[in-house]
Amino acid sequence: MTSVRVPGFSPKTGGFHFTNAFHSNPIRQFKLGNIATLNIGDAANGLCGGMSFTVRDLFEHRIGPPPDTTPPKAGDARYEYIVQRQIDSFEEGLVPLEFYLLMSPGRPEREPVWAQWLAFVHVDRHSRTYVMVHEEWPKIRAELDAGKLSTLGLVRVIDRDPAKLGQNHQVVAYGYDLEGTALTLHIYDPNYPNDDSVTLGLDIRDPRGVAAPRYSKSAAPVVCFFRIGYARQEPAPFR
Fold first, then answer.
1. Angle at 148 between CA 127 and CA 144, to 5 degrees
2. pLDDT number for residue 121
């Protein structure tokens, strides 16, 4: 078995000690091209992306998370930082569009031969299994093997309705175990502070087959995951 952990990180030591539960407060909206507008106008809907990016910023700068067990409130510099990182997490590589495309009910369950030919004309009709196993897992593994955290988008709904984008989730992978083709990713989930037991599993045996992710703590099923790009920022309010 191959077992890799990012040195010095665990949810108990590197993650926030408060959960992803903020008071209602207006934020902003994010335009999904010409398709729709993603309303992230209420912090009460969650700031998982902002928390995930901020945790990475803190780790990159070797700053421990604050001891607080309740989230910061509007007007606090730390709250404003997390909100801005939430926006950044959406803007990094057009993440809402990636979520929306992977939510599509039109994606085939099993990878078809013709999907590769459509890719030549920049039409993505790969199966979700193919995306996870062939495209996203190698990128996630490369980050973790290099001792870096990896931010993941978890697709939790299959639907054409862009209003359901908010049902998706963002987390941070800090390690993996690979036994044969059984992959287990170790996760910091902003919804479960101080919990080192959160995992995401997948059988990576066949990218052309059908494999369903297994999330150990999810209240909703995870149907797909992908790596989210990250550019670190200076977390000045946390110094």
1. 45
2. 43
Helix (H, G, I), strand (E, B) or coil at 103: helix
Contacts of 85 (CB under 8 A, 6+ apart): 49, 50, 51, 53, 54, 57, 233
pLDDT higher than 70, residue 175 = yes
Residue 181 is classified by DSSP as T
Q: What's the first-to-final CA gap in the chain, in angstroms?
A: 39
CB count in 10 Å sphere of residue 115: 17
**C-alpha triplet 205, 210, 212: angle, nearest 5°:** 90
What pLDDT shows up at residue 17?
A: 97
- What is the mean predicted confidence (pLDDT) over 138-154? 98
**How far, rounded to the nearest angstrom, does the alpha carbon of residue 50 sit from its chain's CA centroid?**
11
CB 44 within 8 A of CB 22: yes
The structure tokens listed for 137 are 């897992």
Q: DSSP letters along 116-129, please? A: HHHHTTT-----HH
